[in-house]
Amino acid sequence: xxxxxxxxxxxxxxxxxxxxxxxxxxxxxxxxxxxxxxxxxxxxxxxxxxxxxxxxxxxxxxxxxxxxxxxxxxxxxxxxxxxxxxxxxxxxxxxxxxxxxxxxxxxxxxxxxxxxxxxxxxxxxxxxxxxxxxxxxxxxxxxxxxxxxxxxxxxxxxxxxxxxxxxxxxxxxxxxxxxxxxxxxxxxxxxxxxxxxxxxxxxxxxxxxxxxxxxxxxxxxxxxxxxxxxxxxxxxxxxxxxxxxxxxxxxxxxxxxxxxxxxxxxxxxxxxxxxxxxxxxxxxxxxxxxxxxxxxxxxxxxxxxxxxxxxxxxxxxxxxxxxxxxxxxxxxxxxxxxxxxxxxxxxxxxxxxxxxxxxxxxxxxxxxxxxxxxxxxxxxxxxxxxxxxxxxxxxxxxxxxxxxxxxxxxxxxxxxxxxxxxxxxxxxxxxxxxxxxxxxxxxxxxxxxxxxxxxxxxxxxxxxx
Length: 465
Prior knowledge:
Keywords: Membrane, Transmembrane, Transmembrane helix. This protein is mostly helical. The protein is built from 15 helices and 2 strands.
């Protein structure tokens, strides 16, 4: 066990925890996201064995990117925009409603993709769009009360703008499964799909990742930007969003020169940020944690993805095979970068929220555990080994021709890591949380069964005495 003071150093002193929403709001998003993570892992394994019908690849991608990553982003922004910006969340009610729309909308959407019920994609896609637009409005209004914006807030504002466009494109694609919707417009369905995927991954997801890591990477390594970090940050902050928009427009309107310019700016932005993150990790002055271990994988994956992708996108940025970069780098981006950043972040964010609500008022009154004491270090080591192994096997299948069994083995190993990861985080909520998992997921129902929510977020039954 590390000294108490060093493990508590990860609690930033400048955040405004009084501005945070009730614990059930972000944790409800995280728990739902973890359920979609397990579902995505299972669909990936069954799909690799040919055991699923319908559009299994689309279902797999939507479960992981929309269900796990984007729902987690919704919960994280809802929690930390008020905390970092020192302003109240615009509407707690909307933050609860957004999840009640997105979760069933995505579940129905995936079932329709697998079952071939394409006529129902539009209604479920409409639920998704409405839920995400409520989120964009709610967090956007919260951000507007926090001017001027810092680097993280600027990235989050951009990500919200991307998300509004991405969901509109997504609903158009869903409607297009059963009826023509692009007549008279100089774009094709394939171009719209490519632009949708580009803005989703490089716009919404990576922009959010970069914005969050400017805060988290500095905060939890206890190291500051210095020297070359500042020009590299300008390259990313100015060039990267221009690149994302140009790449999306080039793909949408079949304009190779525009797409190539955008592709080069995107690669340059990823390289710049990857170097900044790597320098933060090398300069870390605190004990190495599961969070930082996973960030190290992400930093290495960013630079490897850029090296493989640059020549491919220079040659043809519009190729369907190069949608997410070089064909051999998809797992580097989606699993190595996005996946490991979310894994690492949740290993601090979930215990942090639970700790603040349960233990922060007890400081100085008795023994209080550190944030990193709330989860099981041994389980964290097991899930890291399984996830890293699964990532390595799946990544290898993109470089060399391996039997289908290898892909299934890599997916199974990753799924094992998902299960252990989810179990570890849920144990934090169950053991240390001031509310049960039932109350986290359905706080209104929990209150309706005879419980009431304390100010620290717990649900406590009324005494009958």
